Amino acid sequence: MYLEGTSKCANTDTKINRRFTGSCAQGTVPYLGIFLRDLTMLDTAVKDRLENGFINFDKRRREFEVIAQIRLLQSSCKNSHFRTDETFVIWYHSVPTLREEESYKLSNEIEAPCEQSPGRSLNPTVIVTHCPE
User: Fold this and answer.
1) pTM value?
2) Rounded to an integer, what distance in angstroms lies between the CA atom of residue 25 and that of residue 28?
3) Which residues contact 2 (CB under 8 A, 6 or more apart)?
4) In the beta sheet, which residues pair with residue 55?
5) What are 39-53's pLDDT values in tens digits?
6) Distance, CA of 83 to CA of 95 (rounded, Å)
7) Buried/exposed code over 6-34 (b: 16+ C-beta within 10 A; e: otherwise)
8) In 3-state terms, what secondary structure has residue 100?
């Protein structure tokens, strides 16, 4: 992953880079949301077909690049071995699980919604739509 150049190891001085990568634990834990955001933006913002009716291969190429990055990260972690941190496991299992209503109420206490419209229910509502091309 170092060869791809990440912001964590972006330095042109090769001596510093060699020293840094030698002490750096190899591996990457990506945030999947970035990849999903990119794929969603491509799906909604870029048309599948060009104005002349041809397939938009630029869109397909960009989708392929995002998926290829995900596959590269998946294959790079196959050789990783993790030790179980028993202290963390005990703590994790001790954290209380909230029901959806409790979670929503606590979320509103931490960060209140901008405006409450009259008659709005306390339960969150999600509406998923697909934009026509």
Assistant:
1) 0.47
2) 9
3) 9, 21, 24, 26
4) 49
5) 999 999 999 999 999
6) 21
7) eeeeeeeeeeeeeeeeeeeeeeeeeeeee
8) helix
